[in-house]
Specification:
CATH topology: Cyclin A, domain 1
Number of strands: 6
Radius of gyration: 19 Å
Structural class: alpha/beta
Mean pLDDT: 89
Number of helices: 12
Largest sheet: 4 strands, mixed
Helix content: 40-55%
Distance between the termini: 27 Å
Order of helices and strands: HHHHEHEEEEEHHHHHHH
Number of domains: 1
Amino acid sequence: MFKRLRQLLGLRRARPETIPDKLWQAMLADYPFLAERSAAQLLHLRGLVSEFLAHKEFSGAQGLVVTDAMAIAIAAQACLPVLHLGLGWYDDFVGIVVHPGQMVARREMVDEAGVMHRYSEVLSGEAMDRGPVTLSWQDVASAGALAGHGYNVVIHEFVHKIDMRDGAADGCPPLPSRAAHAAWRDVMQPAYDAFREQVTMAERFGGQVPWLDAYGATAPAEFFAVTCEAYFVNRDRFTQEFPALTQLYDQFFKVNQPLAL
C-alpha cells in the first residue's frame, strides 16, 4: 500500500484522508504526545504527513522491511517541528534509512597534532547535510513511552536538518538577520552553559542528574536538537526546566501563528 500511497499523493497538497484512518488512529495511540494536539492541528498534521510520504523514500537496512505503519509513524514525528513552518524546510533531501536498532558508524578525526584517529560510534540516528536521515526503529518505536523523559530520535534528527539549512549544524537555525542571530545566541548560550555545568557536576561530583539527555552537553547543535525533542513531546516539563527556551522556540517554530498552508 505504501508505494501506491506515494503514487496517489503526487499532488502539491495531498488530502489528509488519503492516509487510511485505521493506520492513523493506531499511530496516535502509540504516540500520545501527537494525539494530544488539537483537532485542527491533527488534521493539518495528517495532510503534511501525506505530502511528506509522497516526496520521501524509505528504505530498510539489515533486511528490515519498512511497513506502512512504520513510515506513517516516522513521518508524523518528523512533521511535528514544521507543523507551522511547512515542509519546505525538508526539501533538500529525499532518503530516510531505517535500521532495526542502533547502528555503528566508523569515524575518522585528525587532532591538533595532525594524527589521524579512527573510532566507532554507536548511534540511534544521524542526519547528513543535504543527505539522508538514518533512524533506529527500536528508538522510534519507543518514543511514545519515552516522552516523559523528553526523548525522541526522529525530532532530534529532523531538527538537525533544520539547523543545517544554512550550513553545518551549529545550534542556530536559519534566521532573517544578524540581530535575530544575536538574540538567539543571547538565550541559547547561557542555557547551554548552565546545562553543561549541570552535566559536569552530575558526572564528576555526584550532583543531581539532569532531566534531559546529557548528550546535549556535547555541542551547541546537540543541545538544540536534544532540547527540541523535549519541547515537542513534553512541553510542560520542558518549560519548567527551560522557560526562556520555550519562549524562543515558540517564536521560531511559530506555534502561536496560523497553520502553514
